[in-house]
Design brief:
The complex is a heterodimer of chains A (605) and B (152). Chain A has 605 residues and is an alpha+beta fold. Chain A has five domains: 99 residues, Beta-Lactamase (2-Layer Sandwich); 102 residues, Beta-Lactamase, CATH 3.30.450.20; 116 residues, Beta-Lactamase, CATH 3.30.450.20; 73 residues, no CATH class; 149 residues, Histidine kinase-like ATPase, C-terminal domain (Heat Shock Protein 90). Chain A has 16 helices and 22 strands. In chain A, helix 15 packs antiparallel against helix 16. Chain A is rod-shaped, with a radius of gyration of 60 Å. The chains are: A alpha+beta (605), B alpha/beta (152). Bound molecules: flavin mononucleotide. The site of flavin mononucleotide (FMN) has 14 residues of chain B, from helix 1, strand 3 and helix 2.
Chain lengths: 605, 152
């Protein structure tokens, strides 16, 4: 029976404790122990502590159990010893039992190793949590703070005996306290983590911004019991971004108070802010404007060029500036100067732009320009008129003097008073002639100083002159063609050229045909022998050319009395051109139109 | 009909393989869904314009904005349009192995991208030019090297 036991069994007989029975399992411990051999001589793996007590148990003869442990090559055993008696009740020997505890032993060993590892990890965790520059903490589901790392005590200056759960809300800034308690509690209730910032009182009484983040410890399906988290100081970052936020808010407030269009754009040139005034001016929302909507507000013909300029500015980082007409909410276009500059600072480049309304200035400038043109032309005309008139009046004056000489020679005067009168007439004639000469010289010398000769860009000058005539052109719906390709430049006095063209074009406009809008062609070209010519051709009333009763180029000559005019214009044209050595021709068909050709003589350099 | 323009940043630089995969899948699905437009990619910078029926376009934007391959997806414009400006859907980027892409349907080298179609409203055409500049830099024939701010 003993053989079948799942345990090692051996009997030790008599006071010498000699082996008598040893089962197979026990062999693992005692080896080749033979019956009759003393256990003291063949102890095998039996531990010495056991061997020492065996004789004493035998001597005592009492029921006694020792526990010892021994391991063979394959298994570990718990050993127990019991005395046994013969049929007379006399002491006979000791029964040695070895129960296989390998499994338990292995488990125990593992537990031991685990405990060691845990201790090591624990130590590491402790060192880390206690040295990292942040506070770590643990709370339970009720919000009781069960752990804070030593940094918390160092930061707050609280004694280690402090009641954490009670005290920490008192250290939170009063303005943040309710929010923090509420948010933490809400997170605990739904078993979620949290992430918020608040001000915590430091040991010196100063409140510092902290970032608190915590996550629940999850063991599904159970509801979380603990929340572990960390508290980091974010004061400086927070102050910085606060300052930036404040700066930004103040800037926006400022921008929103200005009656100008103000906007900002990202480094990519995408507008991310329009001020209040922009929305009022355009009558559009931020969404309707979008990142590039401003370009759609410009005059259609100017949009593509403005878009290209903006892309170019963004690509190169160079300033954007231009004058554009921008549509107001009521559909009216007003002139604006659009300016944008790139600001590069720590947070990457950004664009700041303004659109200033310059409509008033623009109008004023145009009015001034027109008035200036008008004045300078009037002045010039006056000059020319005085010059021409004084020149032309000398001929009759000379005739008068000749006639007067003739009269004095052939007539006789008896009355001495009459001789005096003759003298006075003579003096008056001389004075008249001198005055005319003086006048002509004065005007001519003035003119020569005032009117430098330069190479004129015909296209530009003609455009300028036409701009001055815009009201008349618009009023009559005239179509004007300018063809200067054949002779784009002319060396001449700017003021003279202006006078000539202005007079010819305003004539053409004035004497337009009542049944058709004026069509005027200005053509600059060269004759075969290279003389520059300006041709002004209209489709107007036309005129008699060879009618001695209505000369074309005479002072005060007027072809059409039903049209307002002084009769000075063509006379002036003729005078100006011929004074420089050129001449003017005219061809005309009544009812069909007139063509003037001005043959310039280029002054010597 | 509407069109949507967004820009974003790839989470990891996309490889030739990734790009080709995206091109194949998007071209197939877009043709099926009646989506046309163009996508720009360079060095992690992404911009895309697409047009289609309102519901389809919205659904596509929803899917794209959830796509884990990119982040910082920022919608720049989302507007009704009267008609399409693009006849198909294509993608422009600089592959490492350009030769193997040249023949691919719907693939464009960045400097071969035609200018924004004239049928786009001027504001949207300008937008396309600006995002193209943001993705490829001033010279689209050169792979783009400066970093676009991630706060896009
Ligand atoms: C930058 C980018 C652009 C994309 N463009 C498209 C596109 O134009 N059309 C499309 O069908 N999917 C596009 N996708 C893919 C979608 O995000 C999504 O993966 C795809 O539609 C498959 O979605 P599903 O897996 O939900 O069916 C794009 C993805 C990324 C990252």
């Amino acid at each position: 029976m003993l053989r079948q036991l799942q345990a090692g069994v051996a009997t030790l007989e008599g006071p010498d404790l000699r082996y008598s029975f040893v089962n197979d399992q026990m062999r693992e411990l005692v080896g080749e122990a033979k019956p009759g051999q003393r256990v003291a001589d063949q102890p095998g793996q039996l531990p010495s502590s056991l061997l020492e007590v065996l004789p004493r148990i035998y001597a005592a003869g009492e029921q006694y159990t020792v526990k010892a442990c021994a391991c063979g090559p394959q298994h570990c055993y718990d050993l127990s010893v019991q005395p046994y008696h013969d049929e007379h009740g006399a002491m006979a020997g000791l029964l040695l039992l070895a129960v296989d505890v390998s499994e338990q032993e292995a488990a125990r060993q593992r537990a031991h190793e685990l405990a060691l590892t845990t201790r090591r990890l624990d130590a590491r965790l402790r060192v880390l949590t206690e040295t990292a520059p942040l506070v770590t903490f643990t709370t339970d589901a009720q919000g009781k703070v069960t752990y804070v790392s030593p940094q918390w005590y160092r930061f707050t200056g609280q004694p280690p005996t402090a009641d954490l759960t009670a005290i920490w809300p008192l250290l939170v800034h009063p303005d943040d306290r309710l929010r923090v308690l509420y948010e933490a509690e809400a997170a605990r209730r739904v078993g979620a983590g949290w992430n918020f910032e608040y001000r915590l009182r430091r040991y010196d009484g100063a409140y510092r911004w902290m970032l608190s983040r915590a996550l629940p410890e999850m063991h599904p399906p159970d509801a979380p019991v603990f929340w572990h988290g960390a508290l980091t100081e974010v004061h400086q970052e927070r102050e910085l971004s606060e300052a930036r936020r404040r700066g930004e808010a103040e800037l926006r407030f400022l921008a929103d108070s200005i009656p100008e269009l103000v906007w900002t754009a990202s480094a990519e040139g995408l507008v991310d802010y329009y001020n209040q005034y922009t929305l009022e001016y355009t009558g559009l929302t931020k969404e309707e404007l979008g990142p590039t909507g401003w370009v759609g507000l410009l005059q259609t013909e100017e949009q593509a060029a403005a878009a290209r300029r903006w892309v170019q500015s963004v690509a190169s980082g160079t300033e954007f500036e231009g004058e554009y007409r921008m549509r107001r909410h009521d559909g009216v276009y007003r002139w604006h100067t659009i300016r944008a500059r790139q600001l590069s600072d720590g947070s990457g480049p950004r664009w700041f732009g303004t659109c200033s309304d310059v409509e008033e200035q623009y109008r004023l400038r145009q009015v001034l320009q027109t008035q200036y043109d008008e004045l300078s032309r009037a002045h010039h005309n006056l000059d020319t008129f005085v010059y021409a008139a004084s020149h032309d009046l000398r001929q009759p004056t000379n005739n008068l003097r000749g006639l007067f000489e003739e009269l004095r020679r052939s007539a006789t005067f008896a009355d001495p008073e009459q001789a005096l009168m003759l003298q006075m007439v003579d003096a008056a004639l001389t004075q008249l002639d001198d005055t005319l000469i003086d006048l002509a010289t004065t005007v001519r010398t003035q003119r020569q100083q005032q009117e430098p000769v330069e190479v004129l860009d015909m296209a530009l000058v003609l455009e300028e002159i036409l701009l001055g005539l815009r009201p008349e052109i618009m009023q009559r719906g005239a179509r004007i063609e300018v063809l200067v390709g054949d002779a784009p430049g002319l060396r001449y006095s700017r003021a003279n050229l202006r006078s000539v063209v202005h007079n010819l074009v305003s004539n053409a406009l004035k004497f337009s045909h009542p049944v058709r809008p004026p069509h005027i062609v200005l053509r600059s070209y060269h004759t075969p022998d290279d003389q520059p010519v300006l041709e002004v051709q209209d489709n107007g009333l036309g005129m008699h050319i060879d009618n001695p009763a209505h000369p074309v180029f005479q002072l005060f000559a007027r072809q059409h009395t039903h049209v307002d005019g002084t009769g000075v214009g063509l006379y002036l044209v003729q005078r100006i051109v011929s004074s420089q050595g050129g001449h003017v021709t005219v061809t005309s068909t009544l009812g069909e139109g007139t063509a003037f050709r001005v043959y310039w003589t280029v002054p010597a350099a | 009909m509407k069109h949507i323009v967004y820009i974003s940043r790839a989470v990891h630089a996309l490889t030739d393989y990734d790009l080709q995969h995206l091109l194949d899948q998007s071209r197939r699905d877009n043709a099926e869904n009646g989506i046309t437009g163009v996508l720009f990619y360079s060095h992690g910078n992404i911009a895309q314009l697409f047009e289609g029926e309102e519901a389809t376009a919205d659904a596509l934007y929803e899917r794209i904005s959830q796509d884990g391959r990119h982040s910082h997806v920022r919608k720049l414009i989302d507007r009704s349009i009267a008609a399409r400006s693009f006849s198909e859907w294509s993608m422009a980027f600089h592959p490492l192995a350009a030769e193997s892409f040249e023949a691919l349907q719907g693939f464009l080298l960045p400097h071969r991208v035609p200018p924004a179609p004239a049928t786009l409203p001027i504001a949207d055409a300008l937008l396309v030019e600006l995002v193209r500049l943001a993705v490829f830099g001033p010279d689209p024939s050169q792979p783009y090297h400066h970093i676009v701010a991630p706060t896009l």
